[in-house]
Fold this sequence. Notes:
The complex is a heterodimer.
Chain A (H helix, E strand, L loop, with lengths): L1 E5 L2 H5 L4 H13 L2 E5 L9 H4 L3 H18 L3 E3 L2 H16 L1 H13 L10 E3 H9 L1 H7 L8 E4 L20 H8 L3 E2 L13 H4 L1 H17 L4 E4 L2 H9 L1 H8 L7 E3 H8 L4 H4 L9 H4 L4
Parallel strand pairs in A: 1-2, 1-3, 3-4, 5-6, 5-7, 7-8
Helix pairs in contact in A: 2-14, 4-5, 4-6, 5-6, 7-8, 11-13
Chain B lengths: L5 H10 L15 H5 L10 H9 L3 H5 L12 H5 L6 H14 L9 H15 L4 H12 L1 H6 L1 H9 L12 H16 L5
Helix pairs in contact in B: 7-8
The structure holds iron/sulfur cluster (2 copies).
Amino acid sequence: xxxxxxxxxxxxxxxxxxxxxxxxxxxxxxxxxxxxxxxxxxxxxxxxxxxxxxxxxxxxxxxxxxxxxxxxxxxxxxxxxxxxxxxxxxxxxxxxxxxxxxxxxxxxxxxxxxxxxxxxxxxxxxxxxxxxxxxxxxxxxxxxxxxxxxxxxxxxxxxxxxxxxxxxxxxxxxxxxxxxxxxxxxxxxxxxxxxxxxxxxxxxxxxxxxxxxxxxxxxxxxxxxxxxxxxxxxxxxxxxxxxxxxxxxxxxxxxxxxxxxxxxxxxxxxxxxxxxxxxxxxxxxxxxxx
Amino acid sequence: xxxxxxxxxxxxxxxxxxxxxxxxxxxxxxxxxxxxxxxxxxxxxxxxxxxxxxxxxxxxxxxxxxxxxxxxxxxxxxxxxxxxxxxxxxxxxxxxxxxxxxxxxxxxxxxxxxxxxxxxxxxxxxxxxxxxxxxxxxxxxxxxxxxxxxxxxxxxxxxxxxxxxxxxxxxxxxxxxxxxxxxxxxxxx
Lengths: 290, 189
Ligand code: SF4
Ligand code: SF4
């Protein structure tokens, strides 16, 4: 058994990506990983916060890092956005002593201290690097043979690059798909932006990016898409109909979390997979593997 | 004592923000702009913002829509030949623009971010349904109605939680104490 401190992030705990959290836990168990949820964690500090009050944003991250430090474990998150925010705070606190001093003083007001020893990791990173593709392959019960999967990395898993994959031409999800027995689709938009949270405030701009990603995947023969990011999943799945309307297309591409696809290959049941939470039904494509 | 020009103070303000110090190194090659998926919709492109900042055009920079159209995709940042963290600069412009009361009227992004932050401050985490409803009521009630079918399909699949995750009372108190202290200490620079 390997142990990690676990930071689900708002979306994967009670939010729109609950199926991500559930399948992440189930797949981890199958791989001999115990994800120990951080007690009383708070929002990572997230991009919107850093656009208003940078110091508060660093403090939100720092509280989580301080709580994680007490466990002595690596801090793992499934959310690409939390991954960047927590990592950025972690490295900036080392780089900028003036910032560190202010954050220290704020943390102290809450009776906390952060020495700076935590490593922040993405769930995908621990699967492919700590566990490895061979073990993943060996855990497969139903090979995904014949399934054409588009690995959609999005942005923040690989940029600004905290080191585990190439920032523009990443490969880790491609290799993961192959280790599950599936076929990986190479498509030009695999590490381009889905429109992010601007889908809420600037819908036109983001819809056009969503359309481009979906088209790129479909044109290259994908039957479904997998992603490591709650925001990417929501944009590509829940806004697929809007994109269809706007661009007069009918994409009909199921969009899953990579943990859900792993779960299918591991033979897990719906309770652990949460496939029913997909807006574009996944069963048509995945039916023969279930 | 050295006299400060308008130019100096704005560029210094920006360089003092973590990630902003690289602004003097820019060679105006335009790689960031060419990489940016939203450059076309910005009043000024990412590389223009840098040139304008160095020319001391504080008000023009801070009242533009540009940084509010930034997606934090970090393409500019990983491609810049001078190692400038353009994405961080965008965040810095946003913070300064809010601080100076110049945030842009034609984009709704600041309002979205603001409702987000209010929730995080009071609850410590983000109830997405509450946040999105609050945002639409503040900005565009008509769109809230148009989005109802999608909201219902998310709800039907158990993806729109009404109940917010809450920290323990001690956790909430601790978080507020930290954030209040941070506010008292002012900004990052
Ligand atoms: S890519 Fe870097 S050096 Fe080139 S214009 Fe942009 S910020 Fe300046
Ligand atoms: S991070 Fe922002 S400024 Fe940079 S390329 Fe992406 S959208 Fe453009």
